[in-house]
Specification:
0% strand; elongated; mainly alpha
Length: 192
């Protein structure tokens, strides 16, 4: 078995264990048992509890970005891609069992990754999204800075995800899509 296969096996086991035991449970022995490896192997390939959670975060970000490719490819204008990316990100996060468990049971673990420590996540998302934003040239928006667009999308999606009153009010993707579309149209609609 390769190192990468061992790491994935450990992360699969870690995700299952964290879903069952909770994000703050000391579970290296359970991870090792479930993955069929020794505890020292878990530490060697992943690290301590914090490293396990970080590795899961990065793996899930990779999965999210891979899945987002199809969303970005389906929509033509920058306006449509913006809306659909936000809706997709919020829906994906709301349906992610481990993220939801952490946000509800131990928000202090997840919130820094979505707010104060989000720079590394934003950098990866900006690098991934920039080519899709640059497709806006056909939308006549050559002067748009992809970093600003992506950061706005990410911050909007995070806000929609972690604000309880918004989460319950916009639980349907159609409502969420309309809400994001209305936000974007604020600058285009004359105030009366």
């Amino acid at each position: 078995m390769t190192d990468e296969e061992i790491q994935q096996r450990i992360l699969d086991a870690a995700e299952e264990c964290l879903l069952q035991a909770g994000p703050t449970a000391r579970i290296h022995h359970l991870i090792a048992e479930r993955a069929g490896v020794s505890r020292p192997t878990v530490y060697k390939h992943i690290g301590d509890q914090k490293a396990v959670i970080e590795a899961l975060l990065h793996r899930e970000l990779d999965r999210f970005l891979t899945a987002a490719q199809s969303v970005l490819a389906r929509h033509g204008s920058l306006h449509e891609r913006f809306i659909e990316t936000v809706v997709y990100a919020v829906t994906y996060a709301r349906e992610h069992a481990l993220l939801q468990k952490i946000l509800h049971e131990e928000p202090q673990i997840a919130l820094p990754w979505l707010t104060t420590n989000a720079d590394a996540v934003f950098e990866r998302v900006v690098a991934f999204m920039s080519p899709h934003i640059k497709r806006g040239e056909r939308d006549h928006v050559n002067a748009i800075n992809p970093k600003i667009v992506v950061e706005w999308q990410a911050r909007l999606a995070i806000s929609l995800l972690i604000t309880p009153s918004v989460t319950s009010r916009l639980d349907d993707p159609r409502k969420l899509r309309r809400y994001v579309s209305d936000l974007l149209d604020i600058g285009r609609t004359p105030v009366r």
